[in-house]
Structures are given as C-alpha cells and as structure tokens.
Description:
Number of strands: 6
Structural class: alpha+beta
Number of helices: 9
Largest sheet: 4 strands, mixed
Low-confidence stretches: none
Shape: elongated
Radius of gyration: 33 Å
Helix content: 40-55%
Strand content: 15-25%
Strand order of the largest sheet: 3-2-1-4
Number of domains: 3
Amino acid sequence: xxxxxxxxxxxQIVYRLKMKSKIRAIHKELGFHRTIIRSLKKTAEELGxxxxxxxxxxxxxxQAVISSKKAKKSHPLEIFRNDIEQWLEKKMxxxxxxxxxxEKVSCSYTTLRNFIHKTFPKTFQPIMxxxxxxxxxxxxxFGFVGLCYDPEQKRNRKAWVFSMRLRYSRKAFRTxxxxxxxxxxxxxxxLSFEYFEGIPEKICTDNLKAAVIKACWSGPAVLNKSYxx
Length: 229
C-alpha cells in the first residue's frame, strides 16, 4: 500500500512535473508510488499548476486541495447508511447485514465490515477499576468442560475445571476434575495453596454445592460446615 506523503514531498512532485519530468523518472528518482504521482499530475493539470508562469503551490494550498478532494470522495455504501444503522440497532451481525446489502448492491464482506467499523465506531462503556490488596481475596469456581478422558478409569467422563484466581495479581491455578465432591473440592484448594505457596485471607466462591448450602442476597450465605471449618 502506498504510504501517505507529506505536503513537502507532494510539492517536490509538482515541481518535477512542472519541469516536464516523466512519471517513471519521478518514481525512480524519489521512490514515490506511480499512482500518487499520476493522481497529483491530474490535479495539477486541472488547477494550472504546471503552466510555466504559474507559481509553485504552497504546502497550505496543497493541504486545502487534498482535504477538499477527500471530502468529496464518497464511499459506495454511503447511500445505505440509514439502512445499515437500523440493522445495527436491531443487533444484526455483519454477516446478516452483508446478505441484506447483496440484495441492493454487489459488495464484499470485508468492504462492508470496514465501512461499518469506520462509520459506526463502537462506544466503549465506562468501567470502574476495583482495587485489591495483595493476598486479600481469591475467587473459586467450577466450570463444566464436557467429556474428558479419565486415565484412572480409562474412559471418557464428564469433567469440570476447578479455578482459583487471586484478585490482585490475576494469577490463577486450574485443574481438571471428574466430580464436585467435597473431598475433591478441598483437595483442589490444597493444591492451589501449594501452587501459590501461601493462603489468601479470604476465599470468594460462586454458589457451589460443595461450599454454599443456601445463597442469600440480604445477608451472608449459609456455608457448608466442613468448608467453613
């Protein structure tokens, strides 16, 4: 892809065109892309910059002319802006929108996607950074991962991943287990503490049966007695 030239470099091209230099010669001498030289030559001819008695355009004039040309150049999908905006409001994906656009005009998926990203940039939701102390809290959870091979029983079984993640460092310990029994749950904690070489002040669990007997929004949850101990 041709790189974007500075106003000074564009001025050099106009000067050489004014001196009757060929496009190939300018490309060879300055290393600028022929497409850029050819486009600038067309503009220079239209505005009379190549006339012997015409002064060389200043960088300010070049900037104004190029900015004006960019403003006039319209994207072929611009006429469908309102339609695309309505489809996006309906949470339609780029794939679905592309199929709808093909009913109106021939267009590649990449062209449509780039137009959407440029014309309708996503607004990022504000976030709040939560500050944590070193070694204060670790989050614990089980997550179902599907069928995995159990080397002890030599067959595929339902498997879960146990995860303990430290809130401050985001460092995590994870391991695959084949049940959610209390003994397994407690063993995973021990393995986690050995991995971290320490124990956090607090453990925050999801509503796991091995840890929580009853969840409560208005007060503390009822924890499994063995787990609390």
